[in-house]
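User: Teach me something about this protein's shape.
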Amino acid sequence: MAFLSDAVSRIKPSPTVAMTGRAAELRAEGRDIIALSAGEPDFDTPEHIREAAKAAIDAGRTRYTAVDGIAELKQAIADKFARDNGLEYNTDQISVGTGGKQILFNALLATVDPGDEVIIPAPYWVSYPDIVSLAGGTPVVLPCPADGGFRLSPEALRQAITPATKWLILNSPSNPTGAAYSADEMRAITDVLMENPHVWVLADDIYEHLVFDGFRFVTPAQIEPGLIGRTLTMNGVSKAYAMTGWRIGYGAGPRELIRAMAKLQSQSTSNPCTISQHAALAALTGPQDYIDSSRAAFQRRRDLVVKGLNECPGIDCPMPQGAFYVYPSIADLIGRVSPNGTRITDDEAFAAALLDETGVAVVFGAAFGLSPHFRVSYAASDDMLREAIGRIRRFCEGCQEQ
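Assistant: First, the predicted structure itself:
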């Protein structure tokens, strides 16, 4: 359609949102659907956070605020970075947005010009390449296969950097794989970045608190303080505190970048929801015991899902270090025919047949830039996960060679 801009033609709808929407449509039609496609905790937001939101309403805190966040929340975020990551920021180095996606969006649109390259390890969160493309930049996708732990190697990063490289986006723990970088692995990456002073790093730490088996989370600027002047460290309350719908994300970085992001936000959404800001303030300053209890639940679910999927013929499911996803391979199922006669030509065909024939919604691996895989979110009850795994196993057992 000629009326639409070139910019919007460069992007596509989010595949994860599309699959979740399709599952909801089928459920509305009366189908028995188990949706393991959405990336959000299934727990309720902790009570003290909900009470803080109600108190904000009752106190009349329902008017405009500063474009990129109230001062109290910015201070709480600065305190969080100091407490959890050993990073020192002033409040004028912090931006609060309507979810983590807006922080990423603002940062990339404020800095990326046509011809700029942004390095994105794959598998990646589905929105990274599209936001880069919308900004006019060029996504440079670096495949990071399972035999390397789904992690970017320093050698691959070094070879991918060109004079046009503007950013590296690094998500640890990762959506969709749950892969995370140890301190030594992160040091190897930051060493390459120190060799290339024109490259900035966007650290997406949204799953910071969801790490398992005693894994120690680290973020790039924490490992290499020399990077702090060209790092945007992004986080939020959505995953750690079960607050996806509250839409509060935040980032910390150099003042010039933060000012540019605020200018962009002033002409888009303006301030994040005032009530949600006060809820996020309570999340960051209140009791933190919820994080430990939810982490324990997710680790139990991870173990259940990995074991169950590895018992399915044709599926190979690595053990992730964090987040609440697994990213199994279906390489051995490619070319087979599903129980109802669908040829599994790729992971998209696998996910479509699985939904149609079993009612289990997952997201195909091509959406994340690395096939043949699929993503399962185990942010669901243990009983629901067991039922889903049973359906997947029966589906795989029924797949036949053509």
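Now, about its shape. The CA atoms of residues 108 and 132 lie 7 Å apart. The first strand starts at residue 34 and ends at 35. If you'd like, I can walk through any region in more detail.
User: That's plenty for now, thanks!
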